[in-house]
Design a protein that fits this description.
153 residues, mainly alpha, 2 strands
Length: 153
């Protein structure tokens, strides 16, 4: 590829990623929940599994790859609005565990419907073949990013 074509392609790809990052599923909220709060609820549900004990804030932070203070602030807001509740760890009385309330469980169901609906629409627009190609390309991008991060570490 010619040097000027490479620069144009690189610029277009950068702009596409910037636009995608800005979008960040903002339009797909559920009730009064922000997208980050929805992802925290999904994290609690997925990572906790059938364990009714809940997760520690540090475990949620680790899964979400954000700091403990950031997670604590979000959990506080979710608790105030009735989506999660805190309980004392049975083995370590100093530790607090976070579990979903019924309202939190219902929010996950609604968010999952919205999220799935969005991607159903995208598949309808792109078609199955192009959607599969996009999936493969995104997975290659993620692999490239992981490789790139590992080289910097």
């Amino acid at each position: 590829m010619e040097d000027s074509n490479l620069k144009v392609t690189t610029q277009k790809l950068m702009e596409a990623f910037i636009k995608l990052k800005r979008y960040h599923f903002r339009g797909h909220q559920v009730g009064d929940l922000k997208h980050t709060e929805i992802f925290i609820l999904f994290c609690i549900k997925k990572c906790n599994g059938s364990d009714e004990e809940g997760l520690k804030i540090s475990e949620i932070s680790s899964h979400m790859r954000v700091s403990n203070p950031t997670t604590t602030q979000a959990i506080n807001k979710l608790e105030e609005r009735g989506y999660v509740k805190r309980s004392i760890d049975k083995e370590d009385r100093r530790a607090v565990r976070i579990v979903l309330t019924q309202k939190g469980e219902e929010a996950i169901i609604d968010a999952n419907k919205n999220f799935t609906g969005f991607f159903d629409g995208l598949v309808s627009r792109l078609g199955q073949e192009r959607s599969c190609q996009l999936t493969e390309i995104i997975n290659e991008v993620i692999e490239y990013m992981n490789d790139n991060n590992n080289k910097r570490s």
